[in-house]
């Protein structure tokens, strides 16, 4: 079966569970007060609005790579990373001052609207969004503690879970710096990718799932050899889509990285070989808050003609191959293995 | 021995451990990049700058109420709530737009200074402070997972830990609302107190410590009877100090609650019995961003002459007594019991 089909199957199972989870929390929040209910309603809509659920699927299939049992508990476990991801996105959106996420308003924008008649809607928007994000992180940890799985495995999984969150937060802060620092190098960028994607998006979730199944340190190391190149490929594809994708399909504004002045590999490589005048053009566009469609087109043109786009595209393919090769000799249960091999192809071809 | 002495003894043990903890994290952050090191340095200074360490001491003595062993592990465990508390304060300070905390700059203010030559220092200040807070929460969870204590107890403790964080976050959001809603009642206020202090400051830490020692559900219930009234007393005393305390001793601005328009019990009771003109005076001062010393004095005068101050002071004493009475028949180990009885007196008399 194709990875895309396996991912769809997984999504069809996890979405109702997420909905159920939030409905339970809403019921409990009713005992507190209406504003708490409102917060969870917003978080529910935000979390269910979209998302590929790749991280959650990797927890699920990470477990399935070693064990075939416990369907209910492992599905529940996999929700934790979706909640944590929503938490990170909510805080990220405040930081990036983005109004749109997954084709809908960001949480601080929703709250800004709720408090539009107060004296400082913007500040209230940020304030409630900070707390709403925090609460999702608490929920995510609570879910992991409540699993009906061996305590030893759970503790280890919670440790990995919080470790990757702290790593991705370092990555986030480096990422903000990339828009401030003038001398941000491709080595700095690799560090951001490693922290934000390789460990957080691919390796971490896989390790959490495998750990819950009782996998050994040795097995985790094998999974890392698969996860690290795949994580890099995922991030590079993200950068490509962020510049060349379609806003409607992607669910977020094209050119955000440019607007925030972020130096993706596409930009770094283009700057290295572009003509002096093209270099100047890119530099003048980077960090421009009032980016126009024409300017985005201009950057696309330079990134394409310098060969920078091709370099990133080729790298995505090469890293995907590297990932697949790494598990060809590893003994994994069928359903897990099938997904891991398939997803490596899928991630490089994805359009959103 | 007096509770104050026991608290000092505990502080002398925990502060070097916190320092050691942050030094380890700084060492690890060096492998990432200088900005991550800078973040941990700021968090270290902020966490070590002050604080009563009451929550952490309650984890410690909660354990000591049932067991006398494992000094090292239970001290380590108790650090978790100090890190979580710093996380909550950092986010709280962004929300309250406070520049001062524990007699030093708040984290968003420190970052604002670091980025003062960029185009938007205020936004960068908030952004990095959000992430810095988040990272402390991750650290707190990591500490709990790494304890050398029975896994069953650890899992339960992590569950309580994250549950009280999510409760306090609900309390926080209600607290912001109190400055927006015009019809904020004393019942709403009680809810805020319950969420923000009773469960989070007293009951939660006690339960975490007791759970790590393997205490039964029955024992936890007994501790709740002590914790809930004490938590209320603690919050009321906090409100009194926030209006009548000394800024130098307290380490934060006097009158913050007034400035933020928060309706403490002191204000609610004063409004109920004050003359119409005094009521008007309070209403005009509540939420005033440019609060003067004279205005604070005026509110103090009204709160005193209406008897509202006395009501709160008496309530603090009564709740302290209630707490002590509740554990007089409970069988607790000596060191834990001594602390719990003593701290109930101490909290009502504290000056900061």
Explain the overall architecture.
- The structure is a homodimer of 352-residue chains.
- Chain A contains 16 helices and two strands.
- With 352 residues, chain A is mostly helical.
- The first copy, chain A, has one domain (3-349): Orthogonal Bundle (Farnesyl Diphosphate Synthase).
- In chain A, strands 1-2 form a two-stranded antiparallel ribbon.
- Chain A is globular and about 60 Å long.
- In chain A, helix 4 packs parallel to helix 7 (151-178).
- The first copy, chain A, starts with a helix and ends with a helix.
- The model of chain A has no long low-confidence stretch (mean pLDDT 93).
- Chains A and B meet through helix 2, helix 4, helix 6, helix 7 and helix 8 of A and helix 2, helix 4, helix 6, helix 7 and helix 8 of B.
- CATH H-level superfamily of chain A: Farnesyl Diphosphate Synthase
Please tell me the CATH architecture of chain A by its name: Orthogonal Bundle
Distance between the first and last residues' Cα of chain A: 21 Å
Q: Kindly provide the name of the CATH class of chain A.
A: Mainly Alpha
Total DSSP helices of chain A: 16
Low-confidence stretches of chain A: none
What proportion of the residues of chain A form beta strands (DSSP E)? under 5%
Question: What helical percentage do the residues of chain A reach?
Answer: over 70%
* Major beta sheet summary of chain A: 2 strands, antiparallel
Q: Biggest chain pair contact, residues each? A: A-B, 53 and 53 residues
Q: Strand pairing plus helix content of chain A: what structural class?
A: mainly alpha
CATH topology of chain A: Farnesyl Diphosphate Synthase
For the largest beta sheet of chain A, what order do the strands appear in spatially? 1-2
Q: What multimeric state do the chains show?
A: homodimer
- Tell me the number of strands of chain A: 2
């Amino acid at each position: 079966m194709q990875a895309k089909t396996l991912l769809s199957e997984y999504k069809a199972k996890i979405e109702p569970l997420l909905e159920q989870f939030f409905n339970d929390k809403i019921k409990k929040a009713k005992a507190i007060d209406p504003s708490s209910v409102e917060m969870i309603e917003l978080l529910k809509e935000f979390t269910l609005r979209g998302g590929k659920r790749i991280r959650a699927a990797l927890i699920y299939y990470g477990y399935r790579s070693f064990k075939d049992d416990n369907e209910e508990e492992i599905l529940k476990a996999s929700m934790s990373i979706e909640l944590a991801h929503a938490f990170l996105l909510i805080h990220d959106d405040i930081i990036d001052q983005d109004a749109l996420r997954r084709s809908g308003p960001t949480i601080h924008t929703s709250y800004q609207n709720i408090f539009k008649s107060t004296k400082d809607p913007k500040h209230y928007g940020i304030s409630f969004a900070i707390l709403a994000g925090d609460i999702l992180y608490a929920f995510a940890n609570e879910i992991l503690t409540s699993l009906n799985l061996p305590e030893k495995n759970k503790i280890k999984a919670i440790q990995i879970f919080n470790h990757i969150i702290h790593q991705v937060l370092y990555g986030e802060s480096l990422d903000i710096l990339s828009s401030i620092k003038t001398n941000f190098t491709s080595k700095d960028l690799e560090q951001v990718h490693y922290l934000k994607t390789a460990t957080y998006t691919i390796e971490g979730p896989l390790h959490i799932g495998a750990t819950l199944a009782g996998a050994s340190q040795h097995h985790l190391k094998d999974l890392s050899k698969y996860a690290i190149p795949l994580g890099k490929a995922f991030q590079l594809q993200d950068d490509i889509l962020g510049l060349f994708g379609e806003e409607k399909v992607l669910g977020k504004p094209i050119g955000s990285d440019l607007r925030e002045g972020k130096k993706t590999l596409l930009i770094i490589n283009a700057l290295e070989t572009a003509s002096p005048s093209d270099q100047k053009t890119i530099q003048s566009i980077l960090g421009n808050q009032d980016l126009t469609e024409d300017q985005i087109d201009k950057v696309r043109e330079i990134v394409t003609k310098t060969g920078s786009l091709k370099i990133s595209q080729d790298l995505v393919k090469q890293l995907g191959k590297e990932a697949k090769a790494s598990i060809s000799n590893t003994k994994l249960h069928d359903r897990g293995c099938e997904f891991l091999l398939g997803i490596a192809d899928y991630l490089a071809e994805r359009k959103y």
